[in-house]
Here is the input.
Amino acid sequence: VIVFGDLLTGQHVRSILESRSEESTSWFRMQFIIFVIGLFHFKMACTDAIWKIFIYPLSSNKNDQNSLMTYIEQIHPRETVKIESKPGFHQMHEVIQHVGIASRIDAWRTEVTKMYPVVKNLEDFALMNPTWEDLQSIAKKLCINYVASGNPTEPTSLSGLPNDEDQQLQNMRVMQQYFLLYEETTYALNHGDIGHVETCFMPWMFIFLGCGKVKYAAELRQYLENVHFHYSKGLRFAKHNNLYIKVCKTIIAYVSLTLNSLSKLTWQYYCIYGGKFSNHQKQQILSESPLIEVYKNTQFQFEKMFCLEHKTNRHSPPDMMMTFSKLAKYMKDNKANTEVKG
Here is the structure.
């Protein structure tokens, strides 16, 4: 039995396993219970870690024109007090995405104007009709110059920088690294790529340790050790696939159509159309599965005929053009991605 939940749920599960560790059989020891941390809780921990690193030390944001808090004041002027104190997941998620998009746009503008002096903005660069190879070449330079330097001997902390080094630009590089790591994790979660998510666990473990979230780091470490070293092949496959289904929210997120169809049919047969009492048996359900499929299709046809399906509200995505333009202008005026000595 695979149990999903947050850290508190995991602590309760381990407490039960420890209290039953001296029982005689594996059933009474409850060895069939396997805890897996919910990946949405993991994502919430990622946003909280970024908040602790870039916003929580309020004293470090007062004299920095390119701090994350000053960017938030530009796009969310009425929510600064709440974001400084203790924001919710949705607020920090939007902050990371919006500030990250604007800062990467400003990095593109800075690099393009540096390479082509006649170009003043990205609109002028688009009129030049650059090729795909040109965009790839610029993207590689952006990764080296604005995210992470290609020099392995370059100090990673501000304490090892010379006195005339642009510390605000170094802070922007670190911010880009953390924001892009969060974007990579979000993309992998939304598309159900568990292998990709596991590769993101390692850097997040060190980030959690650095900002005081030791329990989350220990949980990720224990998950990787159990899945890749301790569990058998069958248990590893079961845990991966259950975690895989837990992440996916839409049919397109399932890479394996067979797995998706099997999970849907199992849910329909056993839970929705499986009958009750004496009819709710495995053999009875399998023998009547064609009738269940006919009943399900009939129900769907009636829903379509009487327009009873998809009765939900879906709002259109917000138009962020003015917000991004305002923040991009602020970054341009304060030279967020431009090196200024001293």
About this structure: The radius of gyration is 26 Å. Residues 248-263 have pLDDT under 50 and may be disordered.
